[in-house]
Specification:
Blueprint (H helix, E strand, L loop, with lengths): L3 H12 L3 E2 L9 E2 L2 E2 H7 L6 H5 L3 H13 L10 H14 L1 H15 L14 H9 L2 H22 L7 H9 L1
Antiparallel strand pairs: 1-2, 2-3
Helix pairs in contact: 1-5, 5-6, 5-8, 6-8, 8-9
């Protein structure tokens, strides 16, 4: 079983604790990976930039555990590193896109004929398939799938190219 606290520590390597107000970020001002756009949609419709600036780590950690970790079975991914990366990509790309990364990585592994539907849903079959594959093989495939996702994203949305190098580092971790 994987744990939220370890996944949170891994996530914070990429999201950090500082405030980001990059003009190319479609989510707007962000802190701990929480964007103003997401916060307004999920927590408080009238939140403003100061709301995000004033977020405290413990508050965000509880929110992320409640709104992300607890509603999907990341904890059932046996390998903590697989859980960390899957959770991190779901957090960064959205849960469906992040789960598709895992599903494509499973299908790419071609180990024991394990194949899952690439539907973006982290269900029992996806979890069981992920748990049946040698973790290092799966992690390498996850990295490759994530790099391809980010490269395609930049082609579709060229203004996001400023984030490409950071995303590639995240994918390679």
């Amino acid at each position: 079983m994987s744990t939220f606290n370890r996944a949170w520590q891994f996530l914070q390597v990429w999201e950090g604790d500082g405030v980001s107000e990059h003009p190319a970020d479609p989510g707007g001002i962000t802190k701990y990976g929480i964007s103003l756009r997401w916060y307004r949609k999920a927590v408080d419709r009238i939140a403003d930039a100061d709301t995000i600036r004033n977020l405290k780590e413990e508050e965000v950690k509880k929110l992320v555990k409640l709104r992300w970790w607890n509603i999907r079975p990341y904890a059932l991914l046996v390998d903590q590193n697989v859980a960390n990366r899957t959770f991190s990509f779901c957090y960064n790309m959205g849960p469906r896109n992040g789960t598709r990364i895992l599903q494509r990585a499973i299908n790419r592994s071609d180990q024991l004929g394990v194949v899952v539907k690439v539907d973006g849903l982290l269900g029992n079959r996806t979890v069981a398939a992920a748990n049946s594959i040698f973790p290092e093989l799966l992690l390498n495939n996850i990295r490759e799938e994530a790099k391809q996702y980010y490269a395609r994203l930049v082609v579709r949305r060229p203004k996001l190219v400023v984030f490409h190098n950071g995303w590639q580092r995240r994918a390679e971790a």
